Amino acid sequence: MVGAGWIALLAALAGTLGTMLLYVASPQQQWRAAGPWPSRRRWLPGSACLALSLALLLPVMGSGAAVFAWLTLLMLVGSAAPFLGAWRARRRRAR
Questions:
Q1: What is the pTM of this model?
Q2: Are 88 and 31 in contact (CB under 8 A)?
Q3: Contact 43, 36 (CB under 8 A)
């Protein structure tokens, strides 16, 4: 049986990955030099990871705490992503 801590860690990793995938899918992202993913449904992998993350958190915590923790994680990663992208673009130009 998998412990609640491991499920919460897996949910956090899925939420982080989902937020990063949604950032890479945006037209103004700076992580990829080639621009956003070319697919028409480029939002789908990130959204699937976010849904998995929330689904994993709900049984571990109560619904209110799970949604609050999930949204906090999304805000944290989503706020850091543009700064990491700008740092990466600056390093790319410096080479």
A1: 0.85
A2: yes
A3: no
